[in-house]
Amino acid sequence: METIKKDILNYLNNKSFMDGNTQLNDNDSLTQNGIMDSIGLIELMDYICEKYSIEIPEDMLTPENFDSLQGITDLIVKLTE
Amino acid sequence: MRIDTYITEYARKSPHNVAIEEGKNSISYSCLDEDINSITSSMMDFGHCRFAILAESGIQYIKMLMAVYRSNNIAIPLPIELPMFSLERILDTAHINNIIATETQYSRLGEDFFECFETVVVVSNDTSVKTLRKRIVREINNPDTRLVLYTSGTTGTPKGVMLSDRNLIANAGSIIEVLDIIPDDKAAMVISPHHAFGNSIIDSQLMAGGSIGVGNMNFIESTFSLIESGISIFYGVPSTYRMLLRHPERFKKAFGNVRMAASAGGGMDGVTVKNIKESNPDITILPMYGQTEATARLAYLPPEDVDKFGDTIGKPIPGVILDVFDADNRPVGPDIAGELVAKGDNILIGYLDDEMATEKKIIDGWMYTGDLAQKLPNGYFRLLGRKDDLIKIGDHRVNPREVEKYIENNNEVTNVFVVPVPHEIMGNAISLMVIPGQGTDVENLHAFCRKNLPGYLCPREILFIDNPPLSENGKISNRSIIEGYQNVKKSM
């Protein structure tokens, strides 16, 4: 679980969505803190699908599952089980 | 009449009808009218002053906008999705003394941001109003100005489009007529309300006594759920539809009961039209054309002609006259290319504090759109590109020359050239060709763009080149840059 979280954080940093100074807690909203917009979210989604060889069903694309580090991590864990 | 007087009228005629829905919240016309009144009272004694509005999309934003109208002031919505430097550029040019903000935006931006305002009004989630400080500064404004919408706030010099009550009502009236909006209609607003398109959804729905379902495009399932909640009219830019159509099955289910799919902010391509039609054969597809300077809309393509004339913008909306003029401001005949010009009650008053730009935009009562076009023998109009070189990315107009300058001035590079490249969702995206200087670093450049430019301007690719991509006559244009880009790609 921590590995997944770290991987997503690395992605956000490498793709310059945020920099080392950005404080992001596990439950902080990515969209309301100006880190992601709708196009950024699509990029992130494509990355996750490829990296973890999963398909994310549309009904899971909600703020609960996709707007925070914790939400995304839980979603990946659920889909890779 | 002002737009908000229609709300008062419906509050009397059909007080319990829903005006706006947002997530689990909704508000009736009578409650909306009362809440507007209570916010209005904090701004009553100003007398036609400029008020910046900082609010998220939705019920709060609409209440605050209407309260600025009702108190006879001038609303200047700040697009909250813009990066800070863009907001600051707007504030630098707009000379605004007063601001009204939601509690959320006030705490997000912090006290420092608000320091430059003489009057600061904060509206909390339960619509209680706090005036943090107040000093009325007399202003001289065009007496008809009601709303100022900013265009090209991302990179170009921001221009404030001044619109009057008459502009807003005329355009909303035309839209109601073309879409045949009735009080039973519930329209989805998933795009920003701070720009012309979103604003026109608010105006036309509330003037028709219909309702608005507010959402966004961040989380596709939430968007589809909104559409399934009884939306009858869906509005989107072409990229909105392309995003939703990435999920064809879900799209089909959600759009089953939508009667109209309206679009603006760029031509609808044939594939997107076909995919929407296949999902719901009964849906009416209505592509529209316009610009902020025309309040919102100028033309529409009648649904029965979407297949045959899909490459045109159709005909003027009711109340608008369109024509094509040559370089000497004289009308040209059918099939001849020239600049598209427009006349009507929806045409802007002018640009805020910028008489020179206004004089160039409106000549002898005609507004010059900056779009090249030709008139077809049947009276429809076909667009032939921008007069200057703006690139359309999603629903944003981007001036590549200004993006280049901005990147050059802030990085270790010799020259930067913006290349428009196709993007499956946004229509266009940009790549960069860079003549490196000492210490140019691709990673740093990328990071700079990601951090300082809005997401849609983040380059797909950065290529190093040795010489500028000049045309045969030694000039830089989108065309010469695209040709240069293709040559670099070929030799890779």
UniProtKB/TrEMBL annotation, chain A:
SUPFAM superfamilies on file: ACP-like
Which Pfam family, just one, is annotated for this protein?
A: PP-binding
Listed InterPro entries:
ACP-like_sf (IPR036736), PP-bd_ACP (IPR009081)
Report domain Carrier positions: 2-80
Q: What is this protein called?
A: Acyl carrier protein
Q: Say which species the protein is native to.
A: Methanococcoides alaskense
UniProtKB/TrEMBL annotation, chain B:
**Ranges of residues in domain AMP-binding enzyme C-terminal:** 402-475
Q: Which domain of life is it from?
A: Archaea
Q: What is a single molecular function from GO for this protein?
A: medium-chain fatty acid-CoA ligase activity
| One GO biological process term | fatty acid metabolic process
Q: Where is the AMP-dependent synthetase/ligase domain?
A: 9-352
User: Which keywords does UniProt give here?
Assistant: Ligase
Give the family from UniProt: Belongs to the ATP-dependent AMP-binding enzyme family.
Question: How is this protein named in the record?
Answer: Acyl-CoA synthetase (AMP-forming)/AMP-acid ligase II
Classification of source organism: Archaea, Methanobacteriati, Methanobacteriota, Stenosarchaea group, Methanomicrobia
